[in-house]
Amino acid sequence: MIIGYVIGQATTQEALILAERPVRLGTYVVLEYDNVKALGLITNVTRGSPMLDDNMNDIEIVQRLKQFNNSIPVYTKAKVKMLCDMNNHFLMPDIPPFAGTPAREAEDEELKSIYSQDGQIRIGSLIGKNVEVKLNINSFARHLAILAATGSGKSNTVAVLSQRISELGGSVLIFDYHGEYYDSDIKNLNRIEPKLNPLYMTPREFSTLLEIRENAIIQYRILRRAFIKVTNEIREKLKEGQIPFSTLNSQFYELMRDELETQGNSDKKSSAKDEVLNKFEEFMDRYSNVIDLTSSDIIEKVKRGKVNVVSLTQLDEDSMDAVVSHYLRRILDSRKDFKRSKNSGLKFPIIAVIEEAHVFLSKNENTLTKYWASRIAREGRKFGVGLTIVSQRPKGLDENILSQMTNKIILKIIEPTDKKYILESSDNLSEDLAEQLSSLDVGEAIIIGKIVKLPAVVKIDMFEGKLLGSDPDMIGEWKRAEENERIAKGFADFGTEIGD
Ligand SMILES: Nc1ncnc2c1ncn2[C@@H]1O[C@H](COP(=O)(O)OP(=O)(O)OP(=O)(O)O)[C@@H](O)[C@H]1O
């Protein structure tokens, strides 16, 4: 059905149409001209009247005109972003439409040939259309950023994608900052306790746990020497069967404390030794449940075909950084091992999801996680390690990492500075698409990158299970509390009667 005609000058990137009736932002249109069958997306709509233009400043004229019932001529103009030439392998059109070219709404079948056929993972449907959108799972290895203002649907998107990837036999590892996935009823869930075994850790990871910064050179040297000596000693004793498993953790604690004392004494600055000892003892007091030398290597905990979730809720941000960076390092190293010798290492590709990514991948801080996430962003694709970062503060993200996220699922973004930051870090997000971000509703997203054939404006499916992060049912909880108070009062009155 024709909705309007091209007017003015058009380019191969965009055209302006004068519409016969109001059209909706995000509508897909088809322009056919000179053997081109161009698919376009309406990215901007304006309505006006030649009779009541911006210069009108007499309200009486408007009132008199209004008395003549709709005799005011109005127009609707819509900007169309050209997406592809469906007659030429979905490449961009090489000639622009001419003025007068009719624009019609795209048929569902035409849109299905683009959005529903090649992908493997359903994520939702084109907004206002009965056209499902399927994502190309292989392109997840080119990394993905899920960005949105708070409450716009990031967690729902992660849950829908993770569950459907696992149902295809794929593997996801979510670092769960708020515990919303760990306590959810996502299918194929594999809960992983955030345990760290020093025998599989690097000195740098262990020093991060103790909040010994990179620039605390003397402290780090003391810790590093002690950590290497103690872990090597424990490995030797384990090999000779000299340490019972049950005393491993306590032995580690005592050996470390003694060795830190020794290493510290050999250093001129005894204050550095005291500082390291304090940090070690404080950490072990607070997080002894995280350090566990009986715990297996994390690679053995991550399961294929599962949504593997590491809950970070009981850790502070430094310990979270140590846990996440340790997992990322072990996964990348282990996938490299497997690629080299097929009988060792992690035997399947995996997608690592970092929630609240602006905390771990901040542009203003050099965390260990940022180092390993950058390594995976650069090298991961070759080894089947895809990174997915999730954030409601895009402008807080490291721009190098964000720019390496080839794919983006961008839900509602309100902050202009966030929008600008995303635009600057995406070579496949155009200004006019970015303009639409503030008008998206909850659960609506613009999807760009290799995971879709063309930019898509999608209503993401609702996760059919329960997510902790979903908005609380306040009314329901108030009613339940009132009911419980009534029951409790009933029992109390009953008790009093018996007493009398
Ligand atoms: N695709 C969707 N369709 C309908 N409702 C949705 C959709 N996605 C999310 N919602 C609803 O919006 C609310 C917020 O969703 P969600 O927790 O996923 O957002 P979020 O961006 O992760 O929020 P936060 O930043 O607080 O973690 C929830 O009540 C959820 O049910």
From TrEMBL:
<dbReference type="Pfam" id="PF09378">
    <property type="entry name" value="HAS-barrel"/>
</dbReference>
<dbReference type="InterPro" id="IPR002789">
    <property type="entry name" value="HerA_central"/>
</dbReference>
<dbReference type="InterPro" id="IPR018538">
    <property type="entry name" value="HerA_barrel_dom"/>
</dbReference>
<keyword id="KW-0067">ATP-binding</keyword>
<dbReference type="InterPro" id="IPR008571">
    <property type="entry name" value="HerA-like"/>
</dbReference>
<feature type="domain" description="Helicase HerA barrel">
    <location>
        <begin position="3"/>
        <end position="84"/>
    </location>
</feature>
<dbReference type="GO" id="GO:0043138">
    <property type="term" value="F:3'-5' DNA helicase activity"/>
</dbReference>
<dbReference type="InterPro" id="IPR053460">
    <property type="entry name" value="DSB_Repair_Helicase"/>
</dbReference>
<protein>
    <submittedName>
        <fullName>Bipolar DNA helicase HerA</fullName>
    </submittedName>
</protein>
<dbReference type="InterPro" id="IPR027417">
    <property type="entry name" value="P-loop_NTPase"/>
</dbReference>
<feature type="domain" description="Helicase HerA central">
    <location>
        <begin position="121"/>
        <end position="331"/>
    </location>
</feature>
<comment type="similarity">
    <text>Belongs to the HerA family.</text>
</comment>
<dbReference type="Pfam" id="PF01935">
    <property type="entry name" value="DUF87"/>
</dbReference>
<dbReference type="GO" id="GO:0043139">
    <property type="term" value="F:5'-3' DNA helicase activity"/>
</dbReference>
<keyword id="KW-0378">Hydrolase</keyword>
<keyword id="KW-0547">Nucleotide-binding</keyword>
<keyword id="KW-0347">Helicase</keyword>
